[in-house]
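Re-run with default settings, no changes from the original entry. Doing this only to confirm the output is reproducible before filing.
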Amino acid sequence: MRQSYFITGISTDVGKTVVSAIVTEALEADYWKPVQAGDLDNTDLHKVKRWVSNSNTVFHESHHNLNTPMSPHAAAEIDGIEISIEQLVRPNTKNALVIEGAGGLLVPLNDTETVANLILPEDKVIIVSRHYLGSINHTLLTIEALKARKLDILGIIFSGDEHPTTEAIIQKMGGIPILGRIDEEPYIDANVVKEYADRLKEILL
């Protein structure tokens, strides 16, 4: 398998799925979200399939599709199952692979393992950050947690309206590159994703 990219966020609903689609399109990579919790009629996999238009990407099914929109450990308990890292075997592919995490970095998968345990040393990690009260703290904590695990942070993609002072202090204190921004788009479709993918392609390769 070629290079793998892990997309994590500073919280839930910060734009990980849109960024995952953009990175997938830019690299013509495969896409995989190991655990989906809730919204099973319109999963993140469904969205990425709609938004990615190249013919090389393979979309891999989630290992767990949980019924309740909660932290995976809690949603799994409701469904009467237990998640373990050993179950979450990565797809075998000759393409690059984009992996989308669930929620933030330390979201529990079970009593002892979090989303962070899914990230391998060879993965290039992209952090998705969105501006809200507390987002500086959440972003810097995410960076610190990744560095403490000696994981390879490729950089940050900001989602939403620009906030220069917030972004400047995150870059200064976090010490990692800013890869780009996804604006507050009125809608997301394949054309929008392709436009962003073309901008990010050279940075990601």
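The domain at 4-195 is CATH 3.40.50.300 (Rossmann fold). The chain has a mean pLDDT of 95.
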